[in-house]
Fold this protein.
Amino acid sequence: MTGFGYELLETDSAARRGRLTTAHGTVETPVFMPVGTAATVKGMTSEVVTRTGAQIVLANTYHLMLRPGAETVDRLGGLHAFMDWPGPILTDSGGFQVMSLTDLRKLDDTGVEFRSHIDGARFLLTPERSVEIQHLLDSTITMVLDECTPHGLGETEAADSMHLSMRWADRCRSAFSERSGYGLFGIVQGSVFPNLRLESAAALTDIGFDGYALGGLAVGEGQTEMFSVLDVTVPALPQDRPRYLMGVGTPDDIVGAVQRGIDMFDCVLPTRSGRTGQAFTRRGTVNIRNARHTEDPRPLDPSSSYPGVGDVSRGYLHHLFKAKEMLGPILLTMHNLHYYQELMAGIRAAIEAGSLDQFAADFRAQQAEGDIEPL
């Protein structure tokens, strides 16, 4: 079994080209992780997800502990066998769900007690239990339990929340069972306050983790403020460990964050947008439901040759969504996932060539052009 480690291969200003080695395979970074919350990237088989270029996927501790249960997944061979994904899997510890369950939970130093959004059953999720659940799932990368600080809190409340997350992180570190090829990531919190972010980064570095995530962003603060937080925080993180920006984001968010030194991303946008008729293309987003596409024989994105999507017309995709045929969301999800993976491959190549700033400028110029003109 291979050990867990990060190798920095190239840099281009703050941007990094690296390689993450795990028990379940290597990951070329910067990388985008499709979200498979409940052990499935919605509407996709694992073979299709692989074909889009994905190297690693994300699943969610909170959802899997409720249904079917971590012990059930363990008895069925662990998450890799359960969802037929042999590659690396990162599991979000449930911190974001803790934030969103305000009316259903009670949070203190012990952990968070909450009612299931499914049937109202009571659960207690402690740092130790979160790590145990992720061990039962056989997560390649375990995330510490944290409180995802809501946007808009004052500095005092944000500090209290961050300090709680740091105490939980220390307990997660103690509870984590070291295995070759498996890693534990800490999560930097502190909302939009630079001093809190730096304090959190220092605390996590002192504890010592295999990677460092930035949480509590993409929760309403806007891109400018998010980038300001990255500008302050990322340089304070260890150079020899991967950096993961949780829940981000749009293609433009990703390009800007890579320019600031981020290595790993996840977001529901490509899959959720695909299910609602929104496609990501080199010239921006396209709403395939719009009537302008009704008789358009052209492909969705002439620059993409992804099998199954590049071969059909906009008119056909429009028809599928209007007719509420399940193939429409499936095809657009495939397209979006492939677009994100092609974007990441382009970013990696640009860093290797020392031309990321030019890549970013070209990317933004093309996005600004907007979609192709109607026929």
Summary: The two ends are 56 Å apart (CA to CA). The mean pLDDT is 95. The longest strand covers residues 5-12. Residues 276-369 form one domain.
